[in-house]
Each structure stands twice: as C-alpha cells, then as structure tokens.
Amino acid sequence: MIIQLKQDISERQKESLIKEVNEIGYKITEVKTQLGDYLVGIGKSDFDIRRIGQKEGIEDIHIVSDEYKLVSKKWKAKPTSIDLGDGVFIKDGDMAIMAGPCSIESEEQIRKVIQHLKDNNIKMMRGGVFKPRSSPYAFRGLGLEGLKLWYELAQEAGIKIVTEVMQVSQIEEMYPYVDIYQVGARNTQNFNLLDELGKVDKAVMIKRGISGTIEELLQSAEYVFSGGNEKLILCERGIRTYEKASRNTLDLNAVPILKAKSHLPVVVDPSHGIGIRAYVPQMALSGVMSGADGIIYETHEIPEKAYSDGQQTLDFAQSALLADQIRKTFAMRKTFALL
Ligand code: PEP
Ligand code: MN
Questions:
Q1: What is the mean pLDDT of the segment spanning 181-202?
Q2: What is the DSSP letter of 281?
Q3: Which residues, at least 6 apart from 97, have a Cβ–Cβ distance to it below 8 Å?
Q4: Given this model, what pLDDT does residue 218 score?
Q5: Which ligand is nearest to the CA of 126?
Q6: Which residue CA neighbors atom 9 of ligand 1 most closely?
Q7: What is the pLDDT of residue 167?
Q8: What's the 204 CA to ligand 2 centre distance in angstroms?
Q9: How far is the CA of 87 from the centre of ligand 2 (A)?
Q10: Whose CA is nearest to atom 4 of ligand 1?
Q11: 113: closest CA among 125, 129, 131?
Q12: Phi, psi angle pair for 79, to nearest 5°
C-alpha cells in the first residue's frame, strides 16, 4: 500500500495515521523524496480502504501488491521525467542519446569526444572514471581527478555527464561533477550503495544485473526511491545466458515489460548488450523500436586504441551515423500506433 501524504500534513495527523494503519496490520515505512512524502505499508491487504481514506492529510491511497511499489505504474500512471537542466531530459515520448568512451583516458580524448558530441547534437556524455574490471590488472580508470577535468570541459560545452559510481565513499566526492550516477551491472544489488544514492538529489541510472531479473532491477530501483530519490532511470544492458556468440544477451523483451510495470524511463545499452562493434547499430535501433526512452553507447576516436571495451566501441563516423539513425527510427516509431 502507498499512502501519498498532503504537503501540509501535520505531525499529529501523520502519527495518528501511522498508528491506525499499524493497527490494521501494516508495517509502515515513511519515505520523503524531493517530490513528495509517502507512507509505504507492507502487510495484509484485505481491509476496507475507506477506513483510512477519509483521514486528514492524505492525498491518495493505492493498493500495490508487487514487491516494488513506489516505482510501480500501479500507483503513478504518469511517466517520470528526468530533468537534467538546460533543456536536457530523459523521458517518455522522447529519445535521449548518451555516448562516449567506455573509459575516460586523457584530456585530449575528452576534448575529441566532446567535439564529436557537439557536432552531432548529443547532449549527454558517458564514460567511466572508476572502472569495474573483471581482471584486477586491467585499466581501472583515472579516478576523481579525471572526473574533475572532464567536468570542466563538459561544462564549457554544455554537455551532461553520465558516469559510474562503484562505492558509497565515492558518492559525495563525485557529487559536484556528475549529472547522472550510473550503477553498473556488477553493483545492481549493492544495497548499501543503492540506499546511499537514495539520499542524493541527482539522477541515478541503474543497469540491470548481469544475471538479474526484471523484477530484481525494479526492486533495486525501489531501494533508491524509498531512500528518497525519485530521479531514476532503468537500463537494459544485456544479461548472461548460455549463449557464447555475443558478450551478453540484450534482452529487449525487458523494455516493453519495464515500461508497462514502471513509470520510470528505460534506456538500452547495445554496446555491452551485444559486445560486437559491427552489430551495435542494429541492436541500438532495435532498442529504439522496442520502446526505449534512450540509447547509451560507446564511442572513441580510435576504438582499437581504447583502454577498455574497444571491441564494442564505435568510431566517430559510425557514431555520427548511428545518432542520426536513432533519431530517424524514433521519428518513425512515433508514427506507428504500437499497442
Ligand atoms: C560501462 O558502462 O562501461 C559498464 C562497465 O557497464 P556495465 O556495468 O553494464 O557492465
Ligand atoms: Mn564499457
């Protein structure tokens, strides 16, 4: 059960409401976010909602039986729009493009990518400064200093920054320099990290876990929302299956399912999803057609020289072509009456 509270509810009204709901048999968690305050009740649902519906201070009540509640569409039909400022949004009915290298490598590299993004009217740059690598000997990123440098250059160019946060201690130090905190596939169920990201007022994009179900992704998002942060984006980036011909299996089924279950925007990452450069464009366009609200992909001036994930990274000419095709495919999608 979700009880949306009125802005002006008094402490006394709230206490009385919590007491009554507890008596009915619900355990209540109070959730305060940037956009509203809620009481999330877990318990038996066979009671007459009218019993508390008339109480003062309540905006609305919703019975949601899913494991995830606040991120569910069952109570909020209106899609959540993520506003990054300066007219940059990630939202339903729009097509966000995020592009950039797997890893931030040098000032020269950042400058080149930014120029490429500007030339192609791409407003969000992805890149890792803290890299989760399967091998401890692989390049692990430029760290905070790299992020500061990137931020300076991105600011000048009016480009937003999407970058991965790997641990709780990084959240605060990264805060001034990021627009979207990315939670990587290896951290989707790092519940401490999710709890702490619930306390910040910047957008968080959660990638689906390597072996994570759709339900688990939504539950991870619920952690952040119930911690107080509603600025959430879900990302399908492929899952590990028995198939070895591609790096991961990009589960585009997840897109319409997530869109139906949740009010949060959904982004597709074809680069990690298939892991093979030559096939990234068609999977990106398939992602657009699957109903995604955005595409995130890897690009680098010379992919063969990239410090990480070069095999799935597009060069700038391929990226320019793809960005154009993403927009054209999205325009076409809008003309289809998809059920
Ligand atoms: C990345 O975006 O470079 C990355 C490491 O992604 P994922 O967490 O999806 O593997
Ligand atoms: Mn990568």
A1: 98
A2: H
A3: 122, 123, 124, 294, 295, 296, 323, 326, 327
A4: 98
A5: 1
A6: 185
A7: 96
A8: 18
A9: 27
A10: 184
A11: 125
A12: -65, 145
Q: At 64, give phi and psi (nearest 5°).
A: -125, 115
Instruction: Find out whether 237 and 217 touch, Cβ atoms under 8 Å.
Output: no
Backbone angles phi, psi at 247, to 5 degrees: -60, -45
Residue 268's φ and ψ, nearest 5 degrees, are: -110, 135
Which pairing describes strands 232-236 and 96-100: parallel, antiparallel, or unpaired? unpaired
The four Cα atoms 264, 118, 303, 298 give a dihedral, to 10 degrees, of: 0
- Cβ(131)–Cβ(103) under 8 Å? yes
| pLDDT given for residue 173 in this prediction | 98
Residue 163 β-bridge partners: 181
Does residue 338 have a pLDDT over 70? Answer: no
pLDDT digits (tens, 9 = 90+) for 82-128: 999 999 999 999 999 999 999 999 999 999 999 999 999 999 999 99
d(CA 154, CA 104): 12
Query: What per-residue confidence (pLDDT) applies to 53?
Result: 82
Element holding 40 (H helix, E strand): strand 37-43
Read off the pTM.
Answer: 0.96
Q: Whose CA is nearest to atom 10 of ligand 1?
A: 185
